[in-house]
Amino acid sequence: MTESNPADDLLPTPHTSVAVGEPLVVLTDVDKYFGDLHVLKNINLTVGRGEVVVVIGPSGSGKSTLCRSINRLETIQSGGIMIDGSPLPSEGKALARLRADVGMVFQQFNLFAHKTILENVTLGPVRVRRKSKQEARAHGMELLNRVGVGNQAEKYPAQLSGGQQQRVAIARALAMDPKVILFDEPTSALDPEMINEVLDVMIQLAQQGMTMIVVTHEMGFARTAADRVVFMADGEILEEAAPEAFFTSPTTARAKDFLSKILTH
User: Fold this and answer.
1) Would the pLDDT of 182 be above 60?
2) Most buried among 35, 137, 194, 222, using CB within 10 Å?
3) pTM for the full predicted model
4) Of 51, 43, 174, 54, which is closest to residue 105 (Cα–Cα)?
């Protein structure tokens, strides 16, 4: 479907959209600068509970900064971000609690090299959620099996493929029982043959009702798994629509130009 990943054609058929609940993530008039560079411009976005929102757009459009701002890995200059009715905390224990509720899966897997796969998954629940090691281990094994790497539990990250490591990263995010998971281009560091094994796990999460905000270049995934596509360019949200409407009838010239360059006809 895309020039970057012909394997998109192997994705399963689109899932039936889940019923979207009350607002879970709300961004209001958000502005973000890096020095003089205005990277997020008056962003307004609401994501409902159980919704899968895929954010796409050209490189440098502010997609990853948007994702990182929701988890406060980037600090915004103005506007507001609410998670499940509460404003984004600035620091301390409240911020740690927020990050427990807002999972994050990065481009790079960010696993601890000196810890086993299972230890990577159980560390957060024990330290932040205060679960017992026994409870965290049982839940961790359940999640590793769920993403298809349970037989790798006692190995170290370097012993796994990139696709396996990213599936472990997804299990690690799930282990915190998050309200929403942010995905920042989760397949961009993978070899093409490993991309679908990660996308398949993400599609399963979507089908199970996990609230997800996904920054990606995988147009096949956007068509298959999204409830809504958000198109960004030059730090602004220019368009948002259901996948079929966006891909067949984009309304802005910028989106039409973007799609004409990445989609094969």
Assistant:
1) yes
2) 222
3) 0.88
4) 174
